[in-house]
Amino acid sequence: MKIGREDFEAFLKGEKDIRPYIELDPVAGSYSVFGVKTASNPNYLVKAIYEMYESNLDKKLAVQAVRKLFRSVGMGSVGLNNLLKKLDLNLSPAEFLMLVFKLQHQQGWGAPFELIEQSDKRIRLRTKQTFESQIMKDWNMAVCGIHQGWIEGILFAATGKNWFCLETKCHAKGDDVCEFIADQVESSWRFKAQAIVKGDSAITEYIEHKPLNGTIKLIDDPVVMMPRFIFTSMMNSLKKTMGEMPAGGVNYRAYMEMGKENVEHYKKMGIDKPNILSDMAFAFYSQMGWFSVLKTEWNEATKTKTMTLTHTVESEAFGNTGKNVCFCTAGLLAGIIEGSFGIKVQAKEIKCRSKGDEYCVFAITNKTENSQ
Ligand SMILES: [Zn+2]
Ligand SMILES: [Zn+2]
Asked: Is the pLDDT of residue 84 over 90?
């Protein structure tokens, strides 16, 4: 079927709908609309996608993962955008967005949006409900990651710029409508890192893993995966050459330097508030599997910060040894705090899972002149 400019114009004006452009060939198993192969939208597929992400993430982050997936789907509209340009049909980003959703809606997919606001940098859309808000209604929260990502991808295809879409109201949460606000944003390291700290994104959203090239990047920074037993292996080899206590000290200092350097890197990326710097480092290390912070307490009288970690990489690697083993983690915590707050501290592990305690607990105090 040949589709021309007049077809799009008739569609945009509402003089025609998609029915004349549907080609269904059950024998060949092909179904196309406007010359593009398509398929129906089975509810079980949508549910399966959300539930697959939920098995590793909480519900909120699962919605964000769905959003990322559908951003790629939305980017596919670049083909339609090029076709319209070739036909000399120049639409604004918001008009293009509305056209794509109109096409999708008539096929039983996207929402029938109402455009509330449009400028170069902000587009606001509203709809009574989306299909995912109906399917995922039992989550009882803002669930429309499909539409969020889709909007971001379509706007990227139309403008070549990054857009960030928020869902401010959602039918699945009990609101009267689903409302989306898309803002054109710079896609900076800072923006992504802060989303991780605020809990709006998981680091997995920004891991670029190219296994066949042997590279992994986390928000554009190269990283490596390493086996946890590296900690037992390193510690044992140091112990053999210098004895147990000095080996602990060497590890403590090495990881303290690493923690400090890590914070320096965040500073170079434009983060400057001490609390955000330390929260960022704790969030990153925790999401990378080093430990999980259960609680942090401050004792004003003794000027001691106490951090309770539910599992540390060393206590997990060593298992039960009857002794404290988390010298690297202690150093890392000290380095992160020193780097973030510009002070000198000492971190001492006072309870350890490897010793038989329930958690690893670290007491962090200001360093006095006499202490080393
Ligand atoms: Zn919604
Ligand atoms: Zn420990």
From this structure: yes
